[in-house]
Amino acid sequence: MPTNSIWSYPPQSGHVEGQDLTGCTVAASDGTIGHVDREADHHGMRHLVVDTGVWIFGRSVLVPVGVVTDIDAGAGKVTVACTRAEVKAAPRFRTDSETMDRAYLTAVGDYYHGLPPRQAPVT
């Protein structure tokens, strides 16, 4: 996957421009991560801020939209091509200002880009 594509929805993801994903459940290959708190696009680095609830002590994580494999708007579900452990191990998201910090976003993109490729799950 080219590095730039980590910041763009894959064509097969089902993303519709202008679609509001706020509140959608986010599922990894091995279980639920949390729900979409918001979507942001700073420096051309489009990403989801996901509230993990109690799963990782109530903190949020930042997920580049390039790892989204499926959006089921009817079910309110976004599926990503990584595991819960991989999301948890991503560079820590602490403050909203990090969504505008090019260096932080680059580190997040590099992390997700370096994950092993996976096939989209068959549903």
UniProtKB/TrEMBL annotation:
One of its GO terms (biological process) is photosynthesis, light reaction. Pfam families: PRC. InterPro entries: Bac_photo_RC_H_C, PRC-brl_dom, PRC_barrel-like_sf. GO terms for cellular component: plasma membrane light-harvesting complex. Residues 17-81 form the PRC-barrel domain. This is PRC-barrel domain-containing protein. It comes from Streptomyces cyaneogriseus subsp. noncyanogenus.
